[in-house]
Write a structure and sequence with these properties.
heterodimer, A: about 280 residues, alpha/beta, TIM Barrel, 2 domains, 7-stranded parallel beta sheet, 11 helices, 7 strands, globular, B: about 210 residues, 5-stranded parallel beta sheet, 8 helices, mitochondrion (chain A), acetylation (chain A), peroxisome (chain A), PYR_CT (chain A)
Chain lengths: ~280, ~210
């Protein structure tokens, strides 16, 4: 069941009206691995690109990078994992090999003046390896940062982390990468996302990834579901007095749109609560 | 008492409107009624716990002042309640409002006599509980499978799920002495009996990855 391209384009256009400044638009991965993203070029070319908003795309290799730039992408993301097994299962190579491939992307990106963001998966646990050492996360993060990524997004891919492990992991990573270059990407599979994000904020992290209506997961991590819902995150940030510039109502409307289009319930509790009143 | 209870709880609200709607009298009147309960309890050596509802917001009044919460808490504590459980009845609170409210209440009541009772209606419960723990609160109310709400607070659903709280406390290295699997089994039992899905994400995740 593949989401129609016009629905994706409308979703991104609606998100562009909410005040969000970075919207990850699509992924230039091979349609063989992720057929749901086969329309990446069409999406990239079809969305309204508002000034002041960045629309980064995922590029797993040089070929994907070249296609992304040809399609109009002005920022890209690469990804690695703090787990060998996860890397093998996800992109069919070792961590070392994956970073080598990215070397080619980094060189091309530098030449084209395209900023690159780096994702590290499994930072608080891996569906195959189990526990992940904070030192390993720091090592992979440092490599990607040294390679030229302007920001490293640390992902709790299966949502297994807690404020305890988040603190431990960030403490290790912050020894190698400046906190201003760090972001967190928490999954809410065990309901821990907002608590984990709060800890990250307390430690100085100021970039948080989220997904409207809490959509999305990872096809390669069995049982993994649910990014943290942007609505619930913004609700918390508002309560903390942090100015996000995001219009929560417009965000909820966007969530309603995409959930109707997908014929599914939202994963956002804020959205659920507001609809009831 | 006749049925064998050896501890009881009384409750008040930090909101006049909620008090009126919930038990049909003012905060003052409700506290007067409780004085009788607390007096009898003292004679029989029965500990009494006090609940304060709407500590972070009211479905009728909206914003609730931390000073009001502190005032009601202090009255219940002075009457003889050994512990005051501060309830975010409709789950509207955030770490920001939780911190402000606790700061006010902690001026009147010792930390060791405080507990938090967070609802997860807006998904904020664990973050709010974490904030309370960071401020020294050591007693947290929850409900297995996240069951329960309040019939008098429209739209209110979902106590925070005990399983999810335990998961977080375990991750923080706090020794709860609670067996998470047994809690999940209890949750499974009651959800089956009620024919409803659990509100606990930990239980859902464990089910999805075949851990149960």
């Amino acid at each position: 069941n593949i989401v129609p391209t016009p629905v994706k384009i409308n979703l991104i256009n609606m998100l562009s009206e909410t005040g969000l400044q970075v919207i990850e638009a699509t992924s230039f991965v091979s349609p063989k691995w992720v057929p749901q993203m086969a329309d990446h070029t069409e999406v990239m070319q079809g969305i309204n690109k508002l000034p002041g908003i960045s629309y980064p795309v995922l590029t797993p290799n040089l070929k994907g990078f070249q296609e992304a730039v040809a399609a109009g992408a002005k920022e890209v993301s690469i990804f690695g994992a703090a787990s060998e097994l996860f890397t093998k299962k996800n992109i069919n190579c070792s961590i070392e090999e994956s970073l080598e491939r990215f070397g080619a992307v980094m060189t091309a990106a530098r030449a084209a003046d395209v900023p690159v963001r780096g994702y590290v998966s499994c930072v608080l646990g891996c569906p195959y390896e189990g526990k992940i050492s904070p030192a390993k996360v720091a090592e992979v993060s440092k490599k990607m940062y040294s390679m030229g990524c302007y920001e490293i997004s640390l992902g709790d891919t299966i949502g297994i982390g807690t404020p305890g492990s988040m603190k431990e992991m960030l403490t290790a990573v912050m020894k190698e990468v400046p906190v201003g270059a760090l972001a967190v990407h928490c999954h809410d599979t065990y309901g821990q996302a907002l608590a984990n994000i709060l800890v990250a904020l307390q430690m100085g992290v100021s970039v948080v990834d989220a997904s409207v209506a809490g959509l999305g997961g990872c096809p390669y991590a069995q049982g993994a579901s649910g990014n943290v819902a942007t609505e619930d995150l913004v609700y918390m940030l508002n309560g903390l007095g942090i100015h996000t510039g995001v219009d929560l109502q417009k965000l909820m409307d966007t969530g309603t749109f995409i959930c109707n289009a997908l014929n599914r319930r939202t994963n956002s509790k804020v959205s659920q609560a507001c609809c009831r009143l | 008492i006749a049925a064998g209870a050896t501890e009881v709880s009384v409750f008040g609200a930090a909101s006049e409107a909620f008090s009126k709607m919930n038990i049909n009298c003012s905060i003052d009147e409700s506290i007067e009624k409780f004085e009788e309960v607390v007096k009898s309890a003292r004679h029989m050596n029965i500990p009494v716990r006090g609940y304060v509802s709407c500590a972070l917001g009211c479905p009728y009044e909206g914003s609730i002042r931390p000073a009001k919460v502190a005032e009601v808490s202090k009255r219940l504590y002075s009457m003889g309640c050994y512990e005051i459980s501060l309830g975010d009845t409709i789950g509207v609170g955030t770490p920001g409002s939780m911190k402000r409210m606790l700061e006010a209440v902690m001026k009147e009541i010792p930390l060791s006599a405080l507990a938090v009772h967070c609802h997860d209606t807006y998904g904020q419960a664990l973050a709010n509980i974490l904030t309370a723990i960071q401020m020294g609160v050591a007693v947290v109310d929850s409900s297995v499978a996240g069951l329960g709400g309040c019939p008098y607070a429209k739209g209110a659903t979902g106590n925070v799920a005990t399983e999810d709280v335990i998961y977080m406390l375990n991750g923080l290295g706090i020794n709860t002495g609670v067996n998470l699997y047994k809690v999940m089994e209890a949750g499974n039992f009651i959800c089956t009996a009620l024919n409803k899905t659990t509100n606990s994400k930990v239980a859902q995740a464990s089910f999805n990855t075949g851990t149960i």
